[in-house]
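Memo subject: From amino acid sequence to discrete backbone structure tokens
Keywords: amino acid chain, backbone geometry, structure tokens, three-dimensional fold.
Body of memo: The sequence and its backbone structure tokens, given next.
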Amino acid sequence: MLADDALGRERELLTDPPDARYTAAFDAICADANQRLVVAELNGQVVGTLQLSFVPGLSHTGAWRGQIESVRIAAELRGAGAGQQMLEWAVAQCRERGCAVVQLTTDKSRADAHRFYEKLGFVPSHLGFKRKL
């Protein structure tokens, strides 16, 4: 699902077996108590994924943040509610952990995703910058 759209096809590698960097990342995520890698299943098939990170911070009086990344829903199920359920679960996890805010980023080109996140109460409050290394 990470390569399920044009943007993903540009930056992800589809190989069998998976590239070793994916395996190393998966192992690191699983070993970190502040990380959650989540899948949604339907009839035994993975139909959605997201990564939830809990990040301590010094701003906002030392508040923790929930960072949602890598949200993907199988193309044929978009609009059927799986994404909303996953995001609601992630927000609930952040509340349970005492996070002051939950945030996510999405590529500027993903207009449908922007509308989806806004529908769920997320607001486009910041401008982000990235630098590839």
